[in-house]
């Protein structure tokens, strides 16, 4: 939330240069307040776990947020009870006339496929195109971040020699950016994917700003002007045991999988995992919500 201070207070210029939200009393008194509207396109197979993770982070804010849950109409999920989907989820056709402050598109276990071969690729494209006029800020996570960069900016992904799996140290490259406000000089972010977008490719795209990166894991966070599109290549939303559950799942399925990096105590899968990212996950989402709150109009019906 912004702080309300006099226009001529000496601290004002310093804070504004640091991208701290400040507001004069006259502007504050004229503000209209309403709940933010968000829609989550949940592409993860573990839909109930994923929606819980994201709602927990969205709920850690003093602002009221109304949330719609979206599933694909072009692909029927196999790992979520039909009763849950019918009761709590809707499809794009049902919300395409709505306007939202925020859209979240999750990761999906389809990263080894060419984008165009994904069953719901056209639906993904339609929703991204729709979002340009109907959503102020879209947050793309993991596969969706790769797909969003490809669709919007022509930046492709590359296969990795092995799954990037674990918790990796990252550094803010633009520490004064609104999305990174309050971040430490180093933070941690979970990764779990078989493909990547090259840091060099993002850096050469003038419309995309790389905000945080890891020496080992590569690109972590990027955004376009005004945070209209935000790309997170890891999984800040993951809970403490999420990587553990993925590790056990792959082991049980006989897939080649290594112990997740920097995750289990003493790198021993028989010991408890250590959550090194929770604080920055909450901070990132709070920063994103606050940024959207400051920029989005009171009346959404005019579009963006």
Helix segment count? 10
Largest sheet: 10 strands, mixed
Question: How many runs of DSSP E, i.e. beta strands?
Answer: 12
Taking pLDDT < 50 over at least 5 consecutive residues as the criterion, the unreliable ranges are: none
**How do the SSEs run, as a string of H and E?**
EHEHEHEHEHEHEHEEHEEEHH
Structural class: alpha/beta
Strand order, biggest sheet? 5-4-3-6-7-12-11-10-8-9
How does this model look, in words?
With 304 residues, this protein is α/β, with parallel strands linked by helices. It is 31% helix and 24% strand. The strands form two sheets. Strands 5-4-3-6-7-12-11-10-8-9 form a ten-stranded mixed sheet, with helices on both faces. A two-stranded parallel sheet has the order 1-2. The longest helix is centred in the C-terminal third of the chain and has 18 residues, at 278-295. The two termini are 22 Å apart. The model has no long low-confidence stretch (mean pLDDT 92).
Write the layout of secondary structure elements.
Layout lengths: L2 E2 L6 H7 L4 E2 L1 H5 L6 E6 L5 H13 L5 E6 L11 H7 E2 L1 H4 L4 E6 L15 H14 E7 L1 H11 L4 E15 L14 E10 L2 H5 L5 E6 L3 E6 L5 E4 L9 H11 L25 H18 L9
Parallel strand pairs: 1-2, 3-4, 3-6, 4-5, 6-7, 7-12
Antiparallel strand pairs: 8-9, 8-10, 10-11, 11-12
Brief overview, please?
By secondary structure, the protein is α/β, with parallel strands linked by helices. It is 31% helix and 24% strand.
Keywords:
two-stranded parallel ribbon; 304 residues; ten-stranded mixed β-sheet; single chain; alpha/beta
